[in-house]
């Protein structure tokens, strides 16, 4: 098994970034954007690409998006709803460099 030791640029290319409101209304839909390669774009070719991104609320996977190697960028907006406060996080999977985890984003429910 190959083990990767990421440098700063590799981290910026792969780590998903979550954009979400800090406060939402209970049970009402809101948008969460997940961006891979926000600062440094990740390649999207047959040889090297982000295959999928998933969004988590605490320990529950709430949404997942698959990307074509050549025709889609790893940027996605999910519409979700929450019943209680949650920590959102995202995973991104690169076919060459494996799984990457975002920072957690706290969303308060009013
Ligand atoms: Fe990669």
Overview in brief:
This protein is mostly beta strands and about 110 residues long.
Describe this protein with a few key phrases.
single chain; 110 residues; mainly beta; Immunoglobulin-like; 6-stranded mixed beta sheet; 1 helix; binds fe (ii) ion
Shape: elongated
Q: Radius of gyration, rounded?
A: 14 Å
Mean pLDDT: 95
Structure summary, number of beta strands: 9
Please indicate the percent range of residues in DSSP E strands (runs of 2 or more): over 45%
The CATH superfamily appears as: SOR catalytic domain
State the share of residues found in helices, binned by percent.
under 10%
The total tally of domains equals 1
Q: Tell me what the CATH architecture is.
A: Sandwich
Q: Please give the count of helices.
A: 1
Largest sheet: 6 strands, mixed
Backbone structural class:
mainly beta
**Topology pattern, helix = H, strand = E:** HEEEEEEEEE
Structure description:
The chain has 110 residues and is mainly beta. The chain has a single domain, classed as Immunoglobulin-like (Sandwich). It is 6% helix and 47% strand. The protein has one helix and nine strands; from the N terminus they run H-E-E-E-E-E-E-E-E-E. The chain starts with 7 loop residues before the first helix and ends with a strand. The chain binds fe (ii) ion (FE2). The site of fe (ii) ion has 6 residues, from loops.
Structural topology:
Layout: H1 8-14, E1 16-19, E2 23-24, E3 30-36, E4 50-57, E5 60-66, E6 75-80, E7 86-94, E8 98-101, E9 105-109
Parallel strand pairs: 2-9
Antiparallel strand pairs: 1-3, 3-6, 4-5, 4-7, 7-8, 7-9
The structure holds fe (ii) ion.
């Amino acid at each position: 098994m190959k083990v990767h030791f990421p440098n700063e640029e590799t981290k910026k290319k792969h780590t998903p970034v979550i954009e979400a409101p800090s406060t939402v209304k209970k049970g009402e839909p809101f948008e969460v954007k997940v961006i891979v390669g926000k600062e440094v774009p990740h390649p999207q070719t047959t040889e090297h690409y982000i295959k999928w991104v998933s969004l988590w609320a605490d320990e529950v996977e709430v949404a997942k998006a698959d990307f074509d190697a050549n025709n889609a960028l790893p940027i996605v907006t999910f519409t979700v709803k929450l019943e209680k406060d949650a920590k959102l996080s995202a995973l991104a999977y690169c076919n060459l460099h494996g799984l990457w985890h975002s920072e957690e984003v706290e969303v308060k429910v009013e």
